[in-house]
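To the structural biology subgroup,

Please find below the input and predicted structure for Imidazole glycerol phosphate synthase subunit HisH, which we are adding to the shared reference set this quarter. The sequence is reproduced verbatim from the submission form. If anyone notices a discrepancy with their own records, reply to this email rather than editing the shared folder directly, so we keep one authoritative version.
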Amino acid sequence: MIAIVDYGMGNTASVSTAFTNLGYEVVITDDIQLLESATHVILPGVGSFKAAMEEINDRNLNAALRKLAKEKPFLGICLGMQLLFEKGFENGETVGLEIIPGTIDKIETPHILPHIGWNKLQISDKHPAFNRFEAKHVYFVHSYQANTAEENIVATTDYGTKIPGIVRKGNVFGIQFHPEKSGEIGIEIIRTFMNETANR
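Predicted structure (tokenized):
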């Protein structure tokens, strides 16, 4: 069973549909016992870093999510990816889930923000499972980006600056773009995450 974390700020319906279409049983929940019983945990998100962390803390999910990320395959999508990091600076400095080292900062680019639209991926040669997504286009909507060590970066995109598109630390993955809105390529990226974590 795939558990999608419901903390009131996620695009849970479309993310759920993406996993259901791949044949997985899905539950949308903020119940810690249900999250603990899942094989994989998905943290979606739409909105601001600060507001999201306030919701997570108000629902007493912070410690549980940190624990689950050590025990199970864990995927953060869009804002959910950003929450995996140590700190975010949207609407003031806010402590994140501190699962992946790094910060979430406003994109420094000559282009218009937010970054909205289709951009192509560049895949790190350290992550061969994702090689087939080199130069494939996926759909982004964001104004903030992760700043983290190269060893944590699976894929980047260019928007007047290099932006991490996929990150990974052990069994924890983060996807900055919306795979559920990126057509067949997005679905195949979700499938790759599931395949990469099948035995964890």
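Summary notes: The CA atoms of residues 54 and 71 lie 24 Å apart. The longest strand covers residues 162-169.

Regards,
Lab coordination
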